[in-house]
Amino acid sequence: MNNMNRSLYLSNVRLTDGQRVSVSIVDGRIEALGAHVDAPRDAPVEDGGGALLLPGFVEGHTHVDKSNWGRAWYRNEVGPLLTDRIGNEREWRKTSGHDAAAQSLALSRAFVQAGTTRLRTHVDIDSDAGLRHLEGVLATRHTMREMLDMQIVAFPQSGMLIRPGTVELLDDALAQGADVIGALDPALIDGDPVASLNATFALAQRHDKPIDIHLHEPGEIGAFTLKLLLDRVEATGMQGRVVVSHGFCLGALPERERDALLDRIARLRVALLTSAPPSCTVPPLKLCRERGITLFGGNDGIRDTWSPYGKPDMLERAMLIGMRYDLRRDDDLMIAFDCVSDAAARGCGFADYGLRAGARADLVLVEADNVAQAVVARPVRKLVVANGRIVARDGALVA
């Protein structure tokens, strides 16, 4: 992100512990934060009016390239299987005139408006579309670069080995600007988990990129694939550079087998992502945190051919995480918020994050007594600061 000179003085705001502070921002970074902080010379002054100060939100897993956000309603009549949804989406994108550049830009702007300043998106790479969707999202990343730090995952949504030429396209995508190599259900989609994982790790090592794998595979099949994945993390030295998205199997295994996998996940510093879907099993949030595993949150798809649901509001996603994991106490709702803030930044590898001196100045102000109320009530964002610059006010973009 460009380090243009951006200074700002934000006064009269509250931290999550209730302390009233001011924030000095210089060159897009937090210079100081505390009760007695001087304003930078010639910096604009913004009175926060006693509002709650939060770090900019982090979307850990979405698909901005395929959203229908802002378009006419899509009538969903797709079949129940994963392969039904994949095939239907591929055909619809081919014939409907769906534009990944326009749609990713519309959704990214909506994310920023609601306080998201860091985002990881998976972008479809397949033998029908080639790199067309990637090119659209790369254009959006360039347009939004001053206010949204975007990571792009090259994602083989239609499978990798089952569609000849996809491995080569993924190789090209990483060379052309994708930040992460994605993967999808090596056993149930590709039909050969060993060969599929070998190809994924080979691409990661060739380009020195991290991995983010969609693992929908249930029960014992998912556990088998996960064990193979962990073997490769250990053998290739990729500890701390792999995310397992969804990981439904971890919510369905017998306790002994699950705990053995969680211990390996912790030791290998593999992070887990959940969208907290109500219709699927999910990894155990508190058990993961007790073991030191980073488990973070994301929306997955938003208003696309897969599902009519979703909204580019990470406070809403935190609320849904809280509901799915039965988080009711105020301190538990702090965990839900952590899933879309610090934990998500850590899981995705976003640097210089948080409310501390030296971090990039990504801040959100809301009218709420505390974090728990912010998550549950999801108030209009009073102010959004991205990279030291005010980009949204009272729920509307100003940048």
UniProtKB/TrEMBL annotation:
Domain Amidohydrolase: start-end pairs: 46-392
GO molecular function, one term: hydrolase activity, acting on carbon-nitrogen (but not peptide) bonds, in cyclic amidines
Record-linked SUPFAM superfamilies: Composite domain of metallo-dependent hydrolases, Metallo-dependent hydrolases
Family annotation (CDD domains): Bact_CD
Pfam families reported in the protein's UniProt record: Amidohydro_3
Gene3D superfamilies: Metal-dependent hydrolases, Urease, subunit C, domain 1
PANTHER family: BLL3847 PROTEIN, CYTOSINE DEAMINASE
Protein's UniProt name: Cytosine deaminase
Organism of derivation: Caballeronia fortuita
